[in-house]
Amino acid sequence: xxxxxxxxxxxxxxxxxxxxxxxxxxxxxxxxxxxxxxxxxxxxxxxxxxxxxxxxxxxxxxxxxxxxxxxxxxxxxxxxxxxxxxxxxxxxxxxxxxxxxxxxxxxxxxxxxxxxxxxxxxxxxxxxxxxxxxxxxxxxxxxxxxxxxxxxxxxxxxxxxxxxxxxxxxxxxxxxxxxxxxxxxxxxxxxxxxxxxxxxxxxxxxxxxxxxxxxxxxxxxxxxxxxxxxxxxxxxxxxxxxxxxxxxxxxxxxxxxxxxxxxxxxxxxxxxxxxxxxxxxxxxxxxxxxxxxxxxxxxxxxxxxxxxxxxxxxxxxxxxxxxxxxxxxxxxxxxxxxxxxxxxxxxxxxxxxxxxxxxxxxxxxxxxxxxxxxxxxxxxxxxxxxxxxxx
Length: 391
Hints:
CATH superfamily of the largest domain: P-loop containing nucleotide triphosphate hydrolases
Number of helices: 16
CATH architecture of the largest domain: 3-Layer(aba) Sandwich
Number of domains: 3
Radius of gyration: 28 Å
């Protein structure tokens, strides 16, 4: 399908010339004789690119640009003018214009700019789709009606409006991150960032730089200043996932940051105040880690103002039917396929499995069943494709 271009210019000869050239290049072209008419058309129709003059009656091009930038479908806007200055061009770019071209128009440059603008529009569309998918996955509800999960939800509702530090415990794949996101989403900090740090995934020699940032030249590879996760989370929430894997030296600095609400970048001397709510999570028994000398007891007490024990899937097996229906719907939607059904005997087979990998393993198995099975997932399908992978 040809890209759609809107030409907004009060000079009819320019509109006609541009239409002729752009239609020859296989674009769909609409015209507007002034800014007000152009804006109305841009609000009703989804254009890929808008060519907009600056000096026009009824509404000038800069005002049109301001309004187009507010549209949900945001086309790339190329400003054109025969009366512009460098200041006008800079102002247009600051307001969000893709480019500025002076009259008389260099048609080769114009066509190149339009094609680049179309690439930008396509990237914006893709980014919005990905952002929606990511946002949807990260703010998903906690699924379940079991007593165990209801206790977790009740605790979240009580704790979220406060700034109390929370320690979420539970096995791998049990949904500790989802609990943290629910707490943040229902808190007074919901409009600020939730910054995540997977303490197990960062080498011990880099964790301090990751958390507190570093100054240029602090170490060999520190070629520029870096802002750490604590500073990024100011006003919001810092989620320290798998904190049981954090080195003792980093633990000491985290403890100081929690005590004083201040941090110092690696290689720096200046203290920086940090207003951050802390949520930590671990799959380890921290009391045993304290006895083994692997975790600081004073840090444990700082983190565990509220402890939420996230149940394993085996401890809430009655939630399997709800979870199965949820994942079938979301995965089929993601794949763009017709929603599959699950036979009641298949549900019973799913409830027999020892889900050592918890919700993460369960979702993977459901995805496998959706890929490999017909329109109805049977008990035999579960036995064939799910149980051999359980422990």
